[in-house]
Amino acid sequence: MIRIAVVDDEERIRHGLVKLIGQYGELFQVVAACASGQELLDRMGGLRLDLIITDIKMPQMTGLQMIERVRRRDTKVKFAVLSGFNDFAFARQAIRFGVEDYLLKPVDEEELAELLHRVHGQAEQERYRKSVAVDEHLRLLLRSEIKHLPEHMAQGAVRELGRTSLLRDHFAVFVLRCEPDAAAEAIERSTDVWSRERKVIAWEPRLLVIAAAIGKGDHADTIRELGHTLLQRLPQSTQARVGASGIHQGPAKLREAYLEAENCLQTCWYEPGAKAMLDAFHAPKPAETDPNPALMLDREFRPALQLLDLDRAGQALRGWLDDLIGRRASWRTLREGSEAVFDLIRCEKRERRLPVGEETEDAAALVPVLFPNGAAFSAAFLAAAEKQLGALGSAKQENRVVETVKAFVQTHYTEELELQRLADTVFLTPSYLSKLFKTETGETITDYIISVRIERAKERLIKEPALKTYEIGERVGYPDPTYFNKVFKKVVGLTPKEYRERVRL
To answer: Is the pLDDT of residue 90 over 80?
Structure first.
């Protein structure tokens, strides 16, 4: 609405102009009709004006003199001047004073309409510019500690916001999470019942921030009541959480208020049900330190994972998650914990030459704010983790293959152990078995067979002194004495005879 004052010493013209302006609708309202410039000046303390339409020729104080004096009080109000004289000198002087238009009496209705709508358009642009500037300053101080901002930037934002009715005195900050996502305009309408100055800002996915003025008539539970009122006004199907700060004063406290509200939101995010609200006055005392999720994993989950004891790993993971949820860990802690879990799984898969990549995608999707509550996040996390542990099940099966081959070698080491024969026992191709065995143990199958045979030979050399060294070689799978001596010395560093004599000493 454009608020207008009409100033003319001729009553007929003054009233006629008021009536004429009234025909252009509710966008334009005459809030003062004055017979002189002094009368307007006397009343200006109680008026908020967008446009003053004044006669130039008036006794005691001309319209131009009045404009000059009004400018000293309010540099933003706009002017249009009236005159019964088609005198260019007046027009030139009026333009020098920065008036919007110069209208001749009798006023042409089309010219007046064009003036009014032009002023309205300019006012709308100015309001939009101010709104954008307020938004930018709010975002800046909500996101950043003042001490970390360039001094001129911080001071400018504090100064401009301090001039607004929203942050001139006390205020509170609310952080709202909605599922499905809500538009700032919809939340603006939902907070109409608050009956107070407020600003709704689209923040991050699923999040909106609301700064609201707190007045002298408010009480200790006002913030809690405002939060619950907002939740009641949201659609019944909406899942929502609201965190609210305490009461603060001055724009410099915006960041502190935001962090309080965000912490409250993250705490009540764990509450059951479709809607929940928590404010800083009723929030539980925060823990001195958040748990280190990576260190907690080292206790049970990591050892079980390395042993491929997947059942125990799953149980450890569920216990680990229950612990974090019981502590109502911050979203950051949950995010870091999720990444640590999938990093461990990825490392284990690499160790076992399994494909990697999916676990990184799963971890990236586990952003707490994207889930309506803690229960939904937990379900998604466990489902993703169980899928990745299942992928390690194939590695566990391959590990059993290696153990089977080892057991066969330890039982049949005196026999001819060709690779094909070993592969047939586990139903694999020789090439695949050879590669798998090397991957799992770090040594070739041939090296393993040699190590088993030499260990058995060492045992017999000690426990069966009556047997000749060549006889021991035959009994561990080396019928050729020369070859047995060569292999034994390569592995042990001594011939079989030297080894037996040294052990006896």
So the answer is: no
